[in-house]
Sequence to fold (141 residues):
Amino acid sequence: MRAWLILAGAALAMSACGHPATGTVIVGNGAAPVPGSELTAAVGALCAARQQAGAHPTAAASTFYLRSHARLHLLASALEPVDRARSGALLEAMYAVERDIAAPRQPPALPGDLAALGRQAGLGLTALRLPRPSCTAGNMT
Fold:
């Protein structure tokens, strides 16, 4: 019985390594840990921005910058050592949204680019073993 408890404890300790769903993510060398829930919330906010983008692009831009932007950069940094290609795809999708928002006239691509960013960010959360908001799958509708 005692050997079983030791093995169970060792298995639990080993499973705690990495990025459990309720844990934290370390971003960069020596950086402070970021709660996984903050990254998940930032990705979830993309869903709200996507819903606003068609009729209220200014509100979508505010939602993106105030609730998602900075944390998405942290997500990309946390992804880099795990999946560099996924990190790059996330940054490229962010750039497309930033470009749309910066345009003098809001391009019709903003809702689609926000949806694409949501999908990339959702895949990033999955790669880090963090919960993924359901709105980031498929068409993000």
In short: Residues 1-21 have pLDDT under 50 and may be disordered.
